[in-house]
Amino acid sequence: MSEGLTESEKFVASISERAFLTLWTHPNPVGKKGKELCDCLIVCGNHIVIISVKDIKYKDTGDKAGWNRWTKSAIDKSASQIWGAERWLGSTQSFIRHDGRQVELPPKEQRIIHRISVSLGAQRKIATKSGDLGYGIVHVCDEFSLGAIFGLLDTITDFVGFLSDVESLITRANIIFSGGGIEDLLAIYLLNNYSFPSDKADLLIIDDTVFKGFVDSDDYKALQVSFKVSYFWDKLIEHFIDDLLTDGMFDYDTKEVTSNQLALVQMALQPRGHRANIAESLIEFLEKKELKIASRVILAYQNTAFVFLTGDSGDREARVQELGMRCLVVRGRFPNVRLVVGIARDRPGEAKNGYSSDIVYIDIPVWTEEFESHVEKIQCELGYFENAAWSKVPLNP
User: CATH fold of 7-216, please?
Assistant: First the structure.
């Protein structure tokens, strides 16, 4: 983490890394002429989240002067930094992190931008709200809503899904928080299964007790228990990230070290509910020897397939080749699946030469007759359907 960050900026960077993992969280990135671009930038898949942090102590002057002064310093200047960063990003295909590592941006025509102002110091003495502040919608978080948003929406897909739905809501309704903030809006969103009620009202007044009531409820406690296993998936992603950022990941196809993170992006795009189902299935597959199966397939979010394979790391090249062939078979068997990520690991307690993990990524948009013929040969070679278990993760857990 950059030494140049303030305590508030360090806190935001820390909770961002916890929520979105280190590979996609970039505190203090470098922008035009070597200057700081923004306080934190999150880039994963096609999504770019620009975060600006302002910690300005509010001074009550007894009239609107103090109110206007704080709003200008904490929100308006934050929004200005965000829009400046957005303009500069629109002129480049990559940027440099504070540690010197270059990060590639998604193609310009595919980018989805989200703007967050972390405006601290008012202690709810001033009403704040998200909205179009001049050059696009900016989501305003304060010291009360910050932890709620980043803590309960701790995957990139869940996070930007909420932001996108709030942006849509803002375009059709005026939202007034009665003593609360965006965390109360989040509670409504979660209580309605990650969506907002289809109410056509053009004015919404949200009470400040909604979020507190939600976190005190049995439903919230049950949700947290059900998500606990999902963090095994996060740890697995971080394991691969460590490989990628230290020595790179070895590509058995090219026989070269690669910095390609496409497989990890697909792992990171899985929402929290899907991660729980995937992780539970993977743990069962790895730990239950009585299953007597070599591989398992999971169909997950946005029809991405994950193929799990166990095998001795003593011959990793052969293991990766088999993993790749199994991924091709999955792509052929499921017409709606375009992306397949394969993960090979030693089964716990059985490794003779230490433990290792391998990963394979396949993206085949169009399935041709040539591929079909190739896959049929692979199936015969593997005896695929006799030693693979098929499990489908619910798309709306």
Answer: Restriction Endonuclease (3.40.91)
